[in-house]
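Continued from yesterday's entry.
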Amino acid sequence: MTIAMQPPSRNSKPRRRPLQDSVVTLAHGSGGSAMRDLIDHLFVQEFDNPTLATLEDQARFDLASLISLGDRLAMTTDSFVVDPLFFPGSDIGALAINGTVNDLAVSGAKPLYLTCSVILEEGLPIETLTRVVRSMKTAALAAGVQIVTGDTKVVPRGSADKLFINTTGIGVIPAGIAPAAQQIRPGDVVILNGSLGDHGAAILVARGELALETPIQSDCQPLHELVAAITRTCPTVRAMRDATRGGLATVLNEFAQTAQVGLRLQESALPVKPEVAGMCELLGLDPLYLANEGKLLVVVPPDHADAVLSTMRQHPAGLESQIIGEAIASPAGMVVLQTAFGAERIVDMLVGDQLPRIC
C-alpha cells in the first residue's frame, strides 16, 4: 500500500495494534500512524505473503523463477467501481481479483502476482472494508495468486462512492501460446463457456430500484484453469477474451474488426437462463450486451473445435459450453445473428450504456 515503513526484524513479525476507528477517516490516508495501523492490521494481515511482508515500496521478483514458467510476461490493470459493493453471488473484492486474473488468463498466461490500490471515502465502515479485503484474500487464494504491493488513499466524504479498487496483474505466458484476435480466419469456430448476462442482471436486481424478485446470481469466477486446459488441448487457439462490459456483442465486434472477418452467431445456440431472458424481455434489454464476469469466448481452428468443446465441458467453469458461431469471410468486420426464423440481423457494438456501474 505504498508502504514507507521499516521492515520487520528477521525473527518476528511487526506488532499489530487494533484499529481504534469504526469508520475510515482522512487520517487513514495521511501517511501517519492511523494509516499504518489500517495497512498493517488489515491489508498486510489478510494478504500475508513473503513478498508483501517486506513492507517495501515495491515488490521484487526472482527472474529465474519467472523464466522457468514461460518466455513472455503478461501485464494488465483494471479499476472496479461496482454499485452496490455486495451483490448476489459476489462482491467488489472478488470481482477485482477474478477480473484481473481473467484478463491475464485470456492471453494464455499463468497469473502470479497482483497489486491492490484502494480509494476509500471518508466514513466508509471499517467492517465493510474488512469484508471486502477478506473476500479479496479468499479469491486470491482460490486463483493461486499473491497480492504483493499496493496503495491506500482516502478522499473526503462525497468525493467518491464508498470504495474503488484498482488492481494490476502480472503473469507468465508459456512458450508457443499466443492467442490474438488478428489470427482469426474464416471457418474458425466460436465457443462460449456458459450462460449470458448473469452478472449484469444480478447487479440490476441488487440495486433494488425495480420490484423484481429473482434468484439470479453473478457469474463472477476465475477462468485461468479453464484457459490452461484449453491451451493444453489446442496450443494454436486463435483468440480468447472474457466478455465483461458491453457483453458478448462487444467482444465479438472487437474480434471481427481486428481480424477483418465476419462472425455469424446462431441464436438457437446462445445460452441464456430463463430468469435473465424474462428480465430482459420485461425491461427491453438485450442479453448479448449484458455484462458477464465469468464468461469466456474462445475461437479455435475448425479441426480442434470438438476437442476443445469436450475439454471445456469437463471443467466446472465450462460445463455449459456451446459452439455458438463461426468466422466467415463476409461481411468483414461485422457480427451477424442468424435468428430462429432463418433471417439474419446485424449485432452492432454497444452504443451508450444499458446498465451503469457494473464492474
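--- second protein ---
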Amino acid sequence: MSDALFRFATAGSVDDGKSTLVGRLLHDSKAILADQLESVARTSAERGFGGEPGAIDFALLTDGLRAEREQGITIDVAYRYFSTGRRSFILADCPGHVQYTRNMVTGATTADAVVVLVDARNGVLEQTRRHLAVVQLLRVPHVIVAVNKIDLLGYSEAAFTSVADEVTTLAGELGLHDAHVIPVSALAGDNVVERSANTPWYAGPSLLELLETLPSLDELETELEALRMPVQLVIRPQGSLAHDVDDAERFRDYRAFAGRIASGTVRVGDRVQVFPGGATTTVAGIDAGPRELDAASAPQSVSLRLADQLDAARGAVVVAAGALPEPRRELDAALFWLGNQPLRPGARVLVKSGTTTVQALVAEVVGRRDLDSLALGPADGLEINDIGQVRVRLAADLPVEEYAAHRRAGAFLVIDPQSGATLAAGIVTAPVTPATGDAGSISTTRTTTDTEGVAA
C-alpha cells in the first residue's frame, strides 16, 4: 500500500456522467455511509430514477449543494475523502459547464491525476479540449480519459476504438503523452472498480486499479527535488510547551520555523538557506508536534530548529543549501482568469506565492490562448475563463521558479487588494515573445502600461 495521499479531479462536458461516475466509484469502493446511501436511495425513488425499484442516482452522492440537486448539474467543486485497502484519496468532482471552468482549474491545480470523461456517443467536444488544455498547462502528472456510457453502444469495441483514437490524437497535439484511456459505464459500473466481463476486448485496469497504482506527485518529487519549505509560522513558545521540568528546560530557548514541506527531504544536520537574505545554517532538530524526527519529507508539516538565530518571519522559505532560486521582481506567467471583471493592463493586484503575499502590477497582457490549438493570439485583456499570458511586476522579490521545473514553487494566486477575492491562478513560465511564441506566433502589437509607482 502507498503511504502517499493521492489527489485526483474529474472533469468533462455537461451530461458526460462525471457525478454518476464519482458516486459509483464511492459506492462500489464501500466509501459511502449507510445513512447517506439511504438518503440518496430515498431521493432517487421519489424522483422515479431509472424506472425500477431500488435504482440509485449515484450523482446525488456528490451534488451537495441544493442548487445542484434541484438543477441536476454540478456547480461547485465537490471534495470527497475516501480510502481503499491500498491507498487514501482526495477527490475533486469539477463542474462541466463552460461558465464554471474556473472551478475546474481550482480542482486540478493540486491534482496528481485528472479523470476526463468523454461520452462514447459524442466523442471529443470543445469542452473536452478545454479541459485537456488546462490539464496540459497545469502539468498534471497523470491524465485518464474515461470513455463513458459504453453500455449504450452495446459495449462495442469499434466504438471505443474510434473515440480512443480521437482522444489519443488530441492528447498528442496538446503534448499530453501517456494518457490512459478506459471504457466505462458509470451507471452500470463497468470498469469503474472491477474489470467488466462486458468488455473482454479491453485488457487494461479498471479506473480504481489505475488510481491505486499511479505514483503521486509527492512520490515523484521527494527524491528528485531539493528541499523547499515555505514558513507559515515562527514558533517562540518559551515555556508554554513544557509538560514537566525536563520539557521546561528544553523549551526555554525554543525557536523553530513551522511549515509544510513543499518538496524534497530534510534531515537533522543538513545545511539549508533561508530566504530572504540567503543566510546558510544547519538543521539542529525537526519536530512534528511533540515528536522529534531524524528526517521529514514532502508533504509533512514540521517545525525546523536551526543552529543559528536567523531573523525571518512568515513568508520566508527554507531551502537546501545551494538550491535557492534567483529571486524575481518580474514574472512571465500564464493566467487562468477567474474574476468576473476583465483584466486590463495596469491592474494593481496582490500576488500570493506559498506563504508570501506581495503587491504587484499587471504590466502587460501578452496574449490569450486559442483553446482549439493552444496558440497564443493577441489580446487587450482577459475575460472570465480565459487562459492568457501576462507580465507581472512585483513590489518585492519572490523566490519563484518556472512551473515546468517546479510545480509548487511556480504556482501563485492573483488576489484583489480591496475585496480579498481570488482573481486568477497563475503559473510562472519562460518569457514569450512575438518571434518565439511557445505555442504559436502572436502579433507584434501589444498593449503595455507604465509600471512606475508600484508600491515597494
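Confidence is low (pLDDT under 50) at residues 65-75, 434-456. The longest strand covers residues 356-369. Will compare against the first tomorrow.
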